[in-house]
Amino acid sequence: MPVPSTDDVTESKILLAEYGCLKEEQKTRIGFRDNLLYFTLAAATAVVAVTAQSGQSRLLLSVPAICLILGWTYLVNDEKISAIGYYVRDRLGPRLEELTSAHGAVFGWEIYHRNVAGRTARKRLQTAVDLFTYLVLPMVCTAAFWMSPVVQPLLLLASLGQTLALAVLGWQFLCRRER
Hints:
By secondary structure, the chain is an all-alpha fold. The protein has helices spanning 11-54, 62-100, 109-112, 119-146, 153-176. The longest helix is centred in the first third of the chain and has 44 residues, at 11-54. The protein is elongated and about 75 Å long. The N and C termini lie far apart (48 Å).
């Protein structure tokens, strides 16, 4: 395999290669993040079904734990997805525009899709879905546990810790939502 000469390597080619790698990572992270939502709902449904069949209300406390772990993973991936978009818009695109003397924004989609009508409403709706999945659903399970006839002190203490952690997670969802 021939080794490319340094004449074949330009800053523009390097930036385009970086763009390709970043978009691939972003695509992979989007798929993973979206699947986390489905997996969380499936896991919570399974726990509720097992709890209903067994009558062991303490099993409901696994839903907040599942939602905390998967919710935080969802947030981390969402943050990386957004960071890639910011980097492409704010650093990579302008640098490539400068190198190529392009007229107008390079990687225009990165800017265009953010200005589409209804985006703000869709982002708010997505935040509501995220909060329902990762905050409301586990809190409903926690409340159901609290109302059960056999609440043990250690499990009650654990559920209070989970409630605090869920509040932090919910706050993070609200703070990190993209405008």
